[in-house]
Amino acid sequence: KTNFFLISINLSCNNINHEGVKYISECLKVNKTLTNLILDRNCIGDEGANYIVESLKFNNTLSTYFERDVK
After folding, report:
1. CA-CA to 9 of 20 to 30 Å: which in 15, 42, 47, 65?
2. Closest residue by Cα to residue 55 from 37, 34, 29
């Protein structure tokens, strides 16, 4: 399905790890409306961060991304 309305999402403190962020990054590759993504206080690690970076090669609408890992 295509998202027409969601422009900001805060997924902070949701125990998202690198596997979870892998699915988020797949959605980012095709999403054309989301401009803000906050993944603060999750455990995505370097591997998860790399998934996000790769997805941004296909997404030109995301302008704000915030992530601070919890170790």
Report:
1. 47
2. 29
